[in-house]
Amino acid sequence: MSCRNSKFSHLRKPHKKMTNNDTIIQSLSAIISRITGVQLGEKQKHMVESRLTKRMLDLNLSTFDEYFRYFKANEHVETQGLISLLTTHHTYFFREFSQIQYVCETMLPELIPIIRARPDRTLRVWSAASSYGQEVYSLAMALHFHLKQLAPDLKFHVHGTDVDAKSVQVGINGVYARKELNAAPAQYCADFWMRGTGAISNYVKAKNSIKSFVSFDTVNLQDQTQLAKQGMFDIIFCRNVFIYFTPEQIRTITHQLLKHVHPHGGLFIGISESLHGLNVDAHSIGPSIYRAGTRPSTRTQGVSASTKPEKEAKSPFPSPTLASEKPLRVLCVDDSPTVIAILKKVFSAGSGFELVGTAVHGKDAIDKVKVLKPDVMTLDIHMPEMDGVSYLKSQFNKEHCPVVMISSVSRENQDLAIEALNAGASDYIEKPSLNQLSERIEEIRTKVRCAYQTKASPPVITSADHDFKRKMVINEPNKKTRVCLFQLSDRKKVLASIKETSKLDPPTLLIIGSDSNLDATHKLFQAELGHQLKTLSQGNETLEAGVVYLASIKTASLIISQRTTVPHSISFLVYSALTEPEQKLIKDSRKGQQLLVTESDAESSLAKIADDVFPTTSFIALSQEFFANDPSAGITAKTPKAA
Hints:
Shape: globular
CATH superfamily of the largest domain: Vaccinia Virus protein VP39
Number of helices: 23
Distance between the termini: 80 Å
Helix content: 25-40%
Strand content: 15-25%
């Protein structure tokens, strides 16, 4: 029955008429899909449209029609640009570390006698979708470390290819943001990276010592002629790329790739990917790792026998592990209940770890280490009773378990972070704000596992750490102010913070709600502070560096108002829930200033506009870094240049 005249015709979904923009997007998507095989259909339309819009802005073009005419006039060059623009590049150093771990711990011992029998004695690895090159350098760093221990007489080479020529050039250049390399295990980075100079002084650059092990080329996985030129490899990585292909394309590409893997080698695909049900002549030997042909009747020692497709973990922080792996026993030392709660999820059952205990400071950790005997420890720097650096200096020795620092202190801080590494810490993780800590799950797990695996080797400070280290020097402290907002119940926390400041710090302004509490509050603080303490009542007083001041909200508002009318840096430290006048003071003065909120107030409206949410024990170090990094102040500390 026709719906046209039926009573149900109003239920029909109206047909969405295609616009000229839709037609252009479809045409361009089809061109890129035909060349690369990457599927750019209706699901990817929004992504394609947004990236094309950005490209149009770069070209100063207003409409899709204008861009399409530009594309036709510059088709050869612009096609390569679109390949770079529309093929997704989400990658980072040591991504899906469990597979690199499998190569180094399980496959290398099996491959060494085979490679040793070859004339060239060279292990060959191919990263077949290398993107910007992080995977290539990650494999090279890990292989260098482990082959040096297992078979120093052997050589290796990692070849990276990608369909996008611009991405390949990034790999050849070997220049990455400093933060990217910070996420890589320190033991593997060693002496391979240096600080850039000139325009790339805030970046790291690969040294020739690591570049000599790698090569890059532009290769389209859809082009069988290009694939045929690649030769034979012991290991091929083609990870997190099949999600953009059709099943038929995956089957064809896999068939071609397996032709280039030696029988003793393996093809690695992404942890979230599987060849199950695709009729590929291959069998699984590990987490998303395959060999050509059907499974041999006899089990190979050290290789998983499971033939079932890998299942994606249901944990909020999935991290597949090897079946034969024993969980690593971890002790977490941090005074923040929120951080501890998150670390419990990081090291939850099924993740390859077991959280055997927690401690709130260094003194507490001393007893816990003796009783629990953990495999690895995570350690904060700022804690009451005994901080992390003091713990390492007094307790760390050859018999101590490996220690990974997880701290809010910048890794470049010479007096704290570098000092912790000098005192024996295996690695360092810059703790993000509490509501973003989950973004660092893989980095935490990778560094903790790597610290345990390399425990026989002495802790290292990488060459990049040496190049970037600096003292946090605050210039012109009188042009800066630290403002603490608190309740009397927070007195001990505030006093602990103030005791971390020095005479070289900016003035510290303590704000109490009303004038009637000033005298009583002054007596409480004066009795315990070694600093000079002054009470303000006029609102026009001059504040001096290294001095602590006490004022009501009314007086403080006048002072802060004066200080925000001229170039001035203010760090607001909020120790507890605020009154409405206090919140208004911050919001009125917020622009360009720092706002730190304690974790106990993490759900407040103020926390939504804060720079970070941290335990109060981190407040002073974070405000010192803010003042030292202030562009109006500059940094006078010596920062070594790359060699």
